[in-house]
Design goal:
elongated; mainly alpha; 0% strand; 82 residues
Length: 82
């Protein structure tokens, strides 16, 4: 019984990590393609490739360097100037 519990725990942890990797990958790709309007196409390709290669770590770096600062996003909060 001990081996089955360990196997089940490792399997569940593996499935959780795979789901987290897929979620991180999809989030970076979606955000780069839809929300980063001012980002150049070359940078978009680089971020997508990095997301494929380093899923969770790539998403974390993307968040820290790009998303948190709103570096390439259009400012929607500012009211129009008349």
């Amino acid at each position: 019984m001990g081996d089955a519990v360990i196997f089940g725990t490792v399997w569940a942890l593996g499935m959780f990590l795979m789901a987290l990797q897929l979620l991180a990958l999809v989030w970076v790709i979606y955000d780069v393609l839809t929300k980063q309007k001012r980002m150049s196409d070359v940078e978009k390709v680089i971020w997508i490739v990095l997301a494929f290669l380093f899923t969770i770590l790539g998403a974390l770096v993307y968040y820290l360097l790009v998303k948190r600062n709103g570096k390439y996003e259009e400012n929607r909060e500012e009211p129009p100037v008349y």
